[in-house]
Structure formats: structure tokens, C-alpha cells
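By way of example, what follows is a protein record of this kind.
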Amino acid sequence: MVDYYGVPTPINQMVAVSVSEARILLIQPWDISTLKAIEKAIMTSDIGITPTNDGKVIRLVFPKPTEEKRKELCKEIKKKYCEETKSGSSFDKKRCAGVPEIYEKEGKSQKMI
């Protein structure tokens, strides 16, 4: 949150964020007078990245992840998204399990399904 005219405001409501290179985020505030406040908010956050200010934009340069960090991220992603997919597909299986019985009650064969 950035103190914008006395009101705590989320950064994403004050800037345009773009990716200039694979590891560089470019943050361009709509009001240049807020540049210092945005830079201060980023520095006090816990992301561990030091912003670079050139007077018009702020650049956040992310370091290359180590092999250990990449493996850790892959495990987290696999755990999160595979579990969601598994639970979603098992829900669909349970939901569709009773469909053939409904058609049989109506006198339709499974070949028509």
C-alpha cells in the first residue's frame, strides 16, 4: 500500500506494470509525483528485490533462480495444480456416475448416450 494523498492505495491501482525483459518488471506510475512513495513501499515489502528508479519508471530486476529453487517451485506448482485437477475430475466422475441410470429409467439404451 502506498500513501496517496493521505489514503492507503494498492500499487496496482496507481501504475502500469509491464515486462521489459524476461527477468525485469517495469513499473510506470500514472502520477510521477508518487514515484518515491511507490519505491519506498516496494523497499519496505518482503519481496527481497531492490527497485531501481530512473526518475520516470521503477525497474525490478529478479535474479536467476538456482537449480534448487527451480526444483522447489516445480514441486509447489505440481502439488497445487495437480491436486486441483484431480479433485475436479473426481467430482465430475461422481456427478456423471448416475447419468446412465437416469436414461435407463426413461427407456433409452446406453448406446444412445
